[in-house]
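Blinded run. Sample ID left blank on purpose so nobody reads anything into the name before looking at the predicted structure. Input follows.
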Amino acid sequence: MVDEAYSDREEWTKKSIRTTAKVCFSPSFRKWIQSIELVQMGKFSSDRAINDYAESYWNIEATPVPNGKDL
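Blinded prediction complete.
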């Protein structure tokens, strides 16, 4: 079935464009894209988040932890 449809390249191209448009403009796809955009807004660093929380809420300084290279 796919081989037969693919043999007519012009029709295959039209169907591909229509299918892509349907998917790209569907509400679920738009939500998925928005979630990706949120993830890509900036690099999340758990170390930075913990340091910010320690300084802002507990008013303490972070203690450096050696990484594998320093041991």
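Unblinding after everyone has recorded impressions. The chain has one domain: 2-58.
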